[in-house]
Write a structure and sequence with these properties.
The complex is a heterodimer of chains A (139) and B (309). With 139 residues, chain A is mainly β. Chain A folds into 2 domains: 80 residues, Alpha-Beta Plaits (2-Layer Sandwich); 37 residues, no CATH class. Chain A is 10% helix and 36% strand. In chain A, the strands form 2 sheets. In chain A, strands 2-3-1-4-5 form a 5-stranded antiparallel sheet, covered by helices on one side. In chain A, strands 6-7-8 form a 3-stranded antiparallel sheet, covered by helices on one side. In chain A, strand 2 and strand 3 form a beta hairpin. With 309 residues, chain B is α/β, with parallel strands linked by helices. In chain B, the strands form 2 sheets. Chain B has a 5-stranded parallel sheet with strand order 7-6-5-8-9, covered by helices on one side. Chain B has a 4-stranded parallel sheet with strand order 2-1-3-4. In chain B, helix 6 crosses helix 7. Classes of the chains: A mainly beta (139), B alpha/beta (309). At the A-B interface, loops of A face helix 5 of B.
């Protein structure tokens, strides 16, 4: 399968198979007016298979959102047909207003003007907990 | 945001072991020398903000403040507060912190005390937030164990009933896991087992040994402490589940024949059917004493947070 190289934009590479769609959703890529390619089960030297996302425009991207799904990805930032930066991600200490707490007993379900904050409590296993009720984040 | 050094008590882990030891010392001294403490909080006001009704905890706090010579104000259910007019929790607490020197707050939503502390200029004590934390009950439990057993280490503790939603159980496990040679026997129906995150983050992390069972009699002979809990109707979304599980365990004298003579039976109260009335006359029943001790340890806590010497 051939997908054209992009002139300006992002190539989110080495995504764990199955995570591309989650990243697509969390970044709301369906709302973009540029070309977006989502490739699953692509060949990989390192992991045999991987997912890839290509975005053909240098739009603002919240990298914490990507890291919250898969911090092992590589993000190639492409400008004028050249990769100007290869970005590696780290798990953010806090995820602010990206996810909502699903605990129906959490104070965030009723209190106005409250940021939805999840705190990284287990880096090894990528576990975040609600800052308020300590419920594990379900992505 | 208001900046201040005053501590709050939101989670039992806000207190170090040394601070808990100090509170226990003060509470013991209060029992021995009640008169010495009777005017310590003269002129101070405790606000009891109970967005969820709880007669026992509220009265315990109010009794504690009154016994220290202070005054109390507050409300006992959300319908008596401005919440019904649509006021946010943060606003209510900010306003009340101008009327009082310390606040004890109970709220049905988990994490509410974290929100309350954001703009509050006086110390806040979490008097229970949903199924999450109830640190002053844990202080009461620790104080009772300390008084009845003379120690907080080298104990085998049975926890029985609702271990899933029972916040007193979660807080007690967290607190006791910091002491040496503690073993837990976790007795519950499958539907009300201790949440995985507590097993992983508290028990496994601290290498605490524990056994899970649904048989209350199996390990009764090994226990130093038996902590009974009520299956709480308010934690269930489905009434059928509550009805099915509410009488799963009933502790009676027949079962207690197998237990140690110096077993200490605790219960955060209110009790429904899980401890038969006949057990009340057993000298191992400590739950009413436990409720009394709760006032003294809350007195010690109020003194600490108000920095009254």
């Amino acid at each position: 399968m051939n997908i054209d190289a992009i002139k300006n934009g992002y190539v989110i590479d080495h995504i764990k198979v199955g995570n591309a769609m989650k990243i697509y959703d969390v970044l709301n890529l369906n709302e973009l007016d540029c070309q977006v390619a989502l490739i699953t089960n692509a060949k990989s030297k390192k992991t045999k298979v991987k997912d890839i996302i290509k975005i053909a425009k240098l739009v603002d991207i919240d990298f914490d959102k990507i890291a919250s799904i898969d911090s092992n990805v590589t993000i190639n930032i492409v400008k004028n047909n050249k990769i100007i930066e290869k970005k590696k991600l780290e798990l953010p200490r806090e995820l602010i207003n990206i996810y909502k707490c699903k605990n129906p007993r959490c104070i965030t379900t009723i209190e106005r003007g409250l940021d939805q904050i999840f705190v990284l409590t287990d880096k090894e296993n990528n576990i975040y907990r609600c800052k308020y009720c300590e419920t594990n984040l379900e992505k | 945001m208001v900046k201040r050094k005053t501590k709050n008590l939101i989670d039992i882990n806000d207190l170090s072991i040394k601070e808990i030891d100090d509170l226990i010392k003060v509470a013991n001294d209060i029992i021995t020398n009640k008169e010495k403490y009777s005017k310590k909080c003269d002129g101070k006001i405790l606000a009891t903000l109970f967005f969820e009704s709880s007669t026992r905890t509220r009265l315990s706090f109010e009794s504690a403040m009154l016994r220290l010579g202070g005054n109390v104000l507050g409300f006992s259910e959300a319908s008596s507060s401005s919440t019904t007019k649509g006021e946010s929790l943060a606003d209510t607490v900010t306003v009340v912190s101008g009327y009082s020197d310390i606040i004890a707050m109970r709220h049905p939503k988990e994490g509410a005390p974290v929100v309350a502390t954001r703009n509050c200029s006086v110390p806040i004590i979490n008097a229970g937030d949903g199924g999450h934390n109830h640190p002053t009950q844990t202080l009461t439990d620790l104080f009772t164990i300390s008084r009845e057993k003379g120690r907080l280490d080298n104990l085998t503790i049975g926890l029985c009933g609702d271990l899933k939603f029972g916040r007193t159980v979660h807080s007690l496990i967290t607190a006791m896991s910091r002491y040496k040679n503690i073993k837990f026997i976790l007795i519950s129906p499958n539907e009300l087992k201790l949440p995985e995150y507590i097993k992983k983050d508290v028990l496994d992390k601290n290498n605490i040994s524990y056994i899970e069972t649904n048989d209350i009699e199996e390990y009764l002979k090994d226990l130093d402490i038996l902590y009974m809990t009520r299956v709480q109707k308010e934690r269930f979304f489905n009434e059928a589940d509550y009805i099915r599980l509410k009488d799963y365990y009933i502790l009676n004298e027949e079962k207690l024949k197998k237990a140690k003579k110096d077993l200490c039976i605790l219960h955060p109260l209110p009790r429904v059917n899980e401890i038969a009335i006949e057990v009340d006359n057993d000298k191992r029943a400590c739950y009413f004493k436990q409720a009394r001790y709760g006032v003294y340890i809350r007195m010690a806590l109020i003194l600490k947070l108000l920095e009254v010497k």
